[in-house]
């Protein structure tokens, strides 16, 4: 069993954690640290029951929980279109996709729990606005084309970032990512397919709607990969630990290279006059990203931050009776089992 009983996060009101280990404790930890380092150097995996440095554990809880929050907040912009999908087929696809995102959130919360932090703590941090989730979900979904573009660009960027996480050194996270990536790939294709139908069989107005959605989502999609490598606070250590395998900028470049070709087939253009093939680099050059906008959105000042968080908190509050009923049912079952055994 995973070490779910461990509790490494400080609880509110609890006495402050002991800041330093004694010399004796450090001496005892030394061989454990060496074994951990050797396994990381060999490209091996760390399981929940294995010893790990506190900072490694904290980094994983931070990244996995931010990732889980992104999945469940990410359900909201698309949820907006369930009742307005143009056909029964598109509605069924959209519902399945949104359910998948909820499932991804659950796998990821479970992976974070293996590190000893409870789901209530993680959700509490999200609902109080303390925890981050991906900047991308703070943009509005104004037309039906936005749903297709989210699949194509947002899920596309998510896959590019998440495939290397299938080899993350923390095994429960890596295992969760394998299944998530398979599903994300269906999400990307359904988005692309929906846009292709509009571009090839649609009216001029529908084609213009797709182009407008691409114009609005392109730059925020590039921001999903995080700040430039030079400004990324966690990258160097996370790469050393084998949590991140490819840097923010390298993943962003891979995404641009792959997506520009897909845009040509679709018949849309990216809103970037500086986007052009660089023969020498064998990559596409692209214009500068508005990092002020990125940090504003991450800091809570994006177009939809308040609405998204408000919806999450409302869903949590509205669902309280379901959680209470499930607990009462579990208690009744346990009581019956105790009576039968007596
Ligand atoms: N948004 O030092 P770094 C999806 C923060 S899932 C907000 O580079 P790191 C599925 C970062 O947390 C999308 N904050 O950080 C879907 C840190 O702040 P902190 C989510 C961001 O962790 C599709 C600070 O900036 N995917 O889309 C962002 O090494 C469609 C410094 O940054 C994942 O979470 C951002 N974009 O690298 C669902 C994948 N970028 O914590 C529905 C796993 C950075 O110090 C519909 N995560 N920050 O306060 C990762 O790969 C990494 O965490 C990165 C950031 C690459 C996101």
UniProtKB/TrEMBL annotation:
Pfam families tied to this protein: PaaA_PaaC (PF05138)
SUPFAM superfamilies attached to this UniProt entry: Ferritin-like
Coiled-coil stretches: none
NCBIfam families: PA_CoA_Oxy1
Family annotation (PANTHER family): 1,2-PHENYLACETYL-COA EPOXIDASE, SUBUNIT A, PHENYLACETIC ACID DEGRADATION PROTEIN PAA
Protein name: Phenylacetate-CoA oxygenase subunit PaaA
Gene symbol of the encoding locus: paaA
């Amino acid at each position: 069993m995973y070490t779910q009983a461990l509790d490494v996060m400080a609880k509110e009101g609890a006495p402050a954690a002991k800041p330093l280990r004694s010399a004796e404790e450090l001496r005892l930890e030394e061989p454990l640290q060496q074994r951990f380092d050797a396994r990381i150097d060999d490209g091996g995996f760390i399981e929940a029951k294995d010893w790990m440095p506190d900072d490694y554990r904290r980094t994983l809880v931070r990244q996995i929980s931010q990732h889980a929050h992104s999945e469940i907040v990410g359900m909201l912009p698309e949820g907006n279109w369930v009742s307005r999908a143009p056909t029964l087929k598109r509605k069924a696809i959209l519902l399945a996709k949104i359910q998948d995102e909820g499932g991804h959130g659950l796998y990821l919360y479970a992976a974070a729990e293996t590190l000893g932090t409870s789901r209530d703590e993680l959700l509490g941090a999200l609902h109080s606005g303390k925890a981050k989730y991906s900047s991308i979900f703070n943009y509005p979904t104004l037309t039906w084309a936005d749903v297709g573009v989210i699949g194509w660009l947002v899920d596309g960027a998510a896959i590019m970032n998440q495939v290397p996480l299938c080899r993350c050194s923390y095994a429960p996270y890596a295992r969760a990512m394998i299944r998530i990536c398979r599903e994300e790939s269906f999400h990307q294709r359904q988005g692309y397919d929906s846009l292709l139908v509009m571009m090839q069989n649609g009216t001029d107005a529908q084609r213009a709607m797709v182009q407008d959605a691409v114009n609005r989502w392109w730059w925020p999609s590039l921001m999903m990969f995080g700040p430039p490598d030079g400004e990324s606070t966690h990258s160097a250590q996370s790469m050393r630990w084998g949590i991140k395998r490819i840097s923010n900028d390298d993943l962003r470049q891979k995404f641009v290279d792959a997506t520009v070709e897909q845009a040509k087939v679709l018949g849309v253009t990216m809103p970037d006059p500086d986007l052009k093939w660089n023969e020498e680099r064998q990559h596409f050059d692209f214009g500068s990203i508005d990092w002020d906008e990125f940090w504003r959105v991450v800091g809570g000042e994006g177009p939809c931050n308040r609405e998204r968080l408000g919806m999450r908190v409302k869903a949590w509050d509205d669902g309280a009776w379901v959680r209470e009923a499930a607990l009462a049912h579990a208690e009744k079952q346990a009581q019956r089992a105790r009576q039968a055994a007596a």
